[in-house]
Amino acid sequence: MSKVNSQADGRAVQTVSDSLLTEIKSVVRGPSVALMLYGSQARGSADSNSDVDVLQIAYRKAGSYSDGRVSVTAYTPAHLRRMAERGSLFVLHLQSEGIELEDPKGVLRDALSAYKAPSSYESLLAELRSAARAVAVNGIEFETLHEELGRLGIYLLRTWLYLENVKVGITAFEVDDAATAHGDNEMLEILRLRRAKSLSREDAVAIQAKVMVTFSLEPEESKNLSELVRELAAEHPHASALIQQVLEYLDTLNYADMPLPPL
Q1: Rounded to an integer, what distance in angstroms lies between the CA atom of residue 116 and that of residue 113?
Q2: Average pLDDT across the chain, whole number
Q3: pTM (2 decimals)?
């Protein structure tokens, strides 16, 4: 077993098996400044179906990519630091649960140390609410893109849930724990669909209904997604980029290539 240091204060030193480290390094592309394990594998709640989530810091931006169960999101040091300074929920997640795998020059530690809790999360809520309008679209686009829209809906609901908990001092980034803390069993059942290999139309309809209630939306019968991308581009570029990725039929959302936030 190889020992690695956790970023969270007061937590015991964690260990990652040599086989997992080898698996991660076989997937990581190009030179890295730093690597961090996060998500269920880092917090010890992973099961046999869990992904291995890895943060890569690289001077040459690489975006998001995956191979097998390993999913890598690569940021430049400057991008991650800007996220930290703006109070990113993702950075808070990394601080709370991430396990440092490599950081020989302290670049990752330096970026994470710049985290400042925002005075308000209204800008993030505005982005989430704007992106949720895509999930509320009915008609042929929903029929064609129900799975991609369902995945977007899950991301929006999960982020909203983390945000609501953080606002009252709960930093739970395990979805089941976060939903339980919020006391929303319906949300818990919807978010468990994130593990499904595919989403049926019925799954997508259930996700859509929860998104619309959560963000207080009405159906957008006459709006198509391309129009929505253009409409949101100026004032809500992050939401616009999220919806654009739906139109590109991407299996996973590429956060590293999107305008700030993600918070």
Answers
A1: 9
A2: 86
A3: 0.83
For residues 149-171, give the mean pLDDT: 90
Helical spans, DSSP H, in 99-138? 107-112, 122-135
pLDDT band at 252 (very low <50, low <70, confident <90, very high): low
Radius of gyration of the chain, Cα coordinates, nearest whole angstrom: 18
Query: Token pair of 261, please?
Result: 């936030």
Beta strand segments in the chain, E? 2-4, 14-16, 34-38, 52-57, 63-67, 70-75, 99-102
**Residue ranges of domains in the chain, CATH in brackets:** 2-112 (3.30.460.10), 122-257 (no CATH)
Which token pair is 163? 């945000």
Which two three-digit tokens encode residue 49? Answer: 């179906």
- Please state, in angstroms and as integers, the Cα–Cα distance from residue 65 to each residue in 158, 161, 256, following that order: 21, 25, 10
Q: By the 8 A CB rule, do 3 and 47 touch? A: no
Q: How many CA atoms lie within 13 A of 21 on its CB side?
A: 13
93 contacts 61 by C-beta, under 8 angstroms: no
Mention every residue, 6+ apart, whose C-beta is less than 8 A from residue 196.
Answer: 203
Mean pLDDT of 16-20: 89
Tokens at 200, concatenated: 């049926």
Taking 80 as the threshold, does the pLDDT of residue 133 lie above it?
Answer: yes
Burial class for 124, CB neighbours closer than 10 Å (0-12, 13-18, 19+): buried
Mean pLDDT of 198-225: 91
Using CA atoms of 158, 218, 248, 150 in order, give the dihedral in degrees to the nearest 10.
Answer: 40
